[in-house]
TrEMBL record:
InterPro entries: ConA-like_dom_sf, DUF1349. It comes from Streptomyces marokkonensis. Pfam families: DUF1349. SUPFAM superfamilies: Concanavalin A-like lectins/glucanases. It comes from the Bacteria. Residues 32-52 are annotated as: Disordered. This is DUF1349 domain-containing protein.
Length: 202
């Protein structure tokens, strides 16, 4: 069933395991179950059972910015709240606030066949603002401690302009090693344009 969120100009649809997604009073909430993750190890071994985690995704048009303050009820290593981009089964990316492995950290995963994994900076507390943007065929990840000054994290693509233009974007909750966690997203905002300068903090 589609979920309509007034801050977003497109509906969201659940994918993967049930995340119990709810929305009310400006807050989106999702729950990861035990040992749910979305990761394709670059070392080549496959995760068993198949790697997946609750996702809530929609299809924006053109260039955009999707912004949310993400708060994670950390219970175990690598629990995370995520802004997620999906182009194909092995072409997707995550911008995460993750307990990695013993301190909240902004980290990213870009999957092109197999996943990479990159930590950016640690966070004092269980909340941070995250932003995913599309600019042409590229995507940009930013994070912020206050929702005003943005830290450039990553710029990448997942295919040609036709493929990236049809991308699904939205939210993911994960708990790879533990018994589950609850993630909330508030201060939701959608802007129908890319940032003017990816590296100027705006």
């Amino acid at each position: 069933m589609d979920l309509e969120i007034p801050e977003l100009p497109f509906p969201l649809r659940p994918h993967g395991p049930d995340g119990g997604w709810t929305y009310g009073d400006g807050v989106l909430t999702g729950t990861a179950g035990p040992r749910q993750d979305r990761f394709v190890p670059p070392t080549g071994e496959e995760l068993e059972p198949a790697s997946d985690a609750p996702r809530l995704l929609g299809a924006p048009d053109g260039d955009f910015q999707l912004i949310a303050r993400v708060t994670v009820g950390f219970n175990g290593a690598f629990d995370a709240g995520v802004l997620y981009v999906h182009v194909g089964d092995r072409a997707w990316a995550k911008l995460c606030l993750e307990y990695s492995p013993a301190v909240p950290t902004v980290c990213t995963v870009v999957t092109r066949g197999h996943s990479d994994d990159c930590n950016s900076f640690t966070v004092d507390g269980s909340s941070v603002w995250l932003r995913v943007s599309r600019t042409g065929r590229a995507f940009a990840f930013h994070a912020s401690l206050d929702g005003e000054r943005w830290i450039f994290v990553r710029l990448f693509t997942l295919g040609d302009e036709k493929e990236t233009g049809a991308a699904l974007v939205g939210f993911l909750a994960q708990a790879p090693t533990g018994e589950g966690c609850v993630v909330t997203y508030d201060h939701l905002e959608f802007r129908p344009s890319a940032p003017a300068d990816l590296r100027d903090g705006g």
